[in-house]
Amino acid sequence: MSTPIRIHGDKCCAALLGRAERTPLEEIRGANVSALTPDDKCRLIWEERAITRLMLDFGRTLDTGDWVAHRACLADTISMDFQRLTGVPATRVAADDWVTFADAILSPTRRHHTYSNFKVDMNGAQAFAVVYQTSRHWRATDLGASEYNQYGWCHAWFRQYSGEWKIVRLKHDFSWVGGNNGLFDMRNPTLIAAMTKVFSADNLAAAAAHSWL
Questions:
Q1: How far is residue 88's CA from residue 82's CA, in Å, rounded to a whole number?
Q2: Could you give the CA distance from residue 149 to residue 18 in angstroms, rounded to a whole number?
Q3: What distance in Å separates the CA atoms of residue 27 and residue 37, rounded to the nearest whole number?
Q4: Distance (Å, rounded) from C-alpha 100 to C-alpha 191?
Q5: Who contacts 147 (Cβ-Cβ below 8 Å, separation ≥6)?
Q6: So what's the pLDDT on residue 4?
């Protein structure tokens, strides 16, 4: 009878993942579940955990305004698609410019991002996830309601760089929104400059031309 595997925190998984003979992720992904070894299953759980934590860090840093940590969640160049919400096509942009834009549009508000219902698929050093999302925003204003909320999910693409997962693409699909989107001051010169840079014609063209195959 085989000895049951017992997982006691990070040390056990780290030991398993460090074995030289570990199966490549793409082979694990395509294998029948019954054919997976305990090591394979632990590695899948470990990588899915890393991706889940990455998305949670992404949302948490948006809420706290820790823009250095937020930038660390992203690859150097990213694609962002908010077309369903804004009507503007996807953009392919330097992550530093995107973070500057996020800071400019969100910092005047209090915000609360919640992610749930993670469904993660991995293929080697790449991964894809569908994640349900609720985004809440609050700001004192004399021009309507003080809240603006978004409900739906996002599609997220990830890639490993030197063994560390980074977000390379996000596509937001909102089921509905509620409240006052006037909380975001589109007359702010800093925000206007950031938006102009992020959603430039060159960036929109780069997103349209980029292949995700």
A1: 7
A2: 43
A3: 12
A4: 9
A5: 136, 137, 138, 178, 179, 180, 183
A6: 41
Answer whether 54's CB lies under 8 Å from 165's CB: yes
Domain ranges of the chain: 10-209
Main-chain phi, psi angles of 20, to 5 degrees: -65, -30
Closest CA to 209 of 95, 127, 90: 90
pTM passes above 0.85: no
β-pairing verdict for 74-81 and 164-179: parallel
Q: Any idea which residue has 């949670």 for tokens?
A: 56
Q: What is the 3-state secondary structure of 106-153? A: HCCCEEEEEEEEEEEEEECCEEEEEEEEEEEEECCCCCCCCEEEEEEE
Question: What would the pLDDT profile of 120-162 be if each residue is shown by its tens digit?
Answer: 998 888 999 999 999 999 999 888 899 999 999 999 999 999 9
Could you report the per-residue pLDDT of 33-68, keeping only the tens digit for each? 667 788 878 888 899 999 999 999 999 999 999 999
Fold exhibited by the domain 10-209? Nuclear Transport Factor 2; Chain: A, (3.10.450)
SS3 call for 170: strand
| Spatial CB neighbours of 166, under 8 Å, sequence gap ≥ 6 | 54, 73, 74, 75, 158, 159, 160
In degrees, rounded to 5, the angle at the alpha carbon of residue 110 between the alpha carbons of residues 154 and 157 is 20
Rounded distance, CA 173 to CA 191, Å?
Answer: 23
